[in-house]
C-alpha cells in the first residue's frame, strides 16, 4: 500500500535525511517536480501558497497531484503552504490536501497558539492523516530577490525561535510539524549570499520537541549548510525562489533566442528543464546522495 506523508516523514526522521518541498505556480512546475521525483526515486512535497493555489485552482491542483500520483506511482504529496487564516486552512483541508501550514508567525505567541490549535482540531475532525504545520518566528514573506533583509525578520540569537517556546507551542497545539526561525529567510538577497543557518539552534530545538522540523526559506543557503541542517534534525526543506528564478531566466532566454516561436508547449520546454534541474539537485542533496 502507498505510504502516507506521515510515514514518509517518519522514515526521513529515522534515516536522518530530509524530504524536499518545492513550490509550484503552474503545470510546468508540477512536471519539473514529477520528473525530478521519478529520476531520483524519492518522495517529494509540492507546495502551493495562497497566491499559487488561487492561480492554479485549489481543487484543480489537488486533482493534478492525485492524477500524477496514481498514474506514475510517485510518492508526491500536496501541501497548502503559508496559510494566514483558519478559513483558508479549512478550504485546503476540505479540498483533500495532505498537509497544511498555518502561518501565524506575525501574530503574538498566544494568538498564534490559539489559531494553530483551532486548525489542528479541524484537521483531526476531518482526517487524522492530514498533517498540520505551524510557524514560530518570522523569516519574511516573499519568495523573490530581496534588496534588504525583511523588516522584523528573526535572525539574531535573541530573536530566533527558542527551544522552550517551541516545546510549549508543540505541546499545547498538538501540531505535527514545526517551522522554527533558525537563520534562513524567504527569498534570496540580491548579493546572492543569504545569512548562515544556525545549526546549534536547530539541534537545541530538535532536542526540545519530538515533531519533525521544517526549514523554510531554503533558497540562497549553501550546500554545506543544508547538509549540516539535515544532520542536526531538519526533516523537510522548502525551496521556492531558486525555482522561480530558473523559470524566469530560461523563459527569457528561449523567447529571446526564438522570437518567432508561438507554441506554448515548445516555449515552455526549457523552463521545465531548468526547474527540474534545481529540484533534482536539491532532492539528491537533502536525501544525502
Ligand atoms: O514556503 C516556501 C519556502 O520557505 C521558500 O523559501 O523562496 O527562500 O526558497 P525560498
Ligand atoms: Zn516558507
TrEMBL record:
Cofactor binding note of this UniProt entry: Binds 2 Zn(2+) ions per subunit. One is catalytic and the other provides a structural contribution.
An annotated Gene Ontology molecular function: aldehyde-lyase activity
Record GO biological process: carbohydrate metabolic process
Co-factor(s): Zn(2+)
Protein name in UniProt: Tagatose-bisphosphate aldolase
Residues at which Zn(2+) 2 binds: 103, 135
Domain of life: Bacteria
UniProt binding sites for Zn(2+) 1: 82, 186, 216
List of catalytic residues: 81
InterPro entries xref list: Aldolase_TIM, Class_II_FBP_aldolase, FBA_II
Gene3D superfamilies, per the entry: Aldolase class I (3.20.20.70)
Listed NCBIfam families: cbbA
Keywords, ordered alphabetically: Metal-binding, Zinc
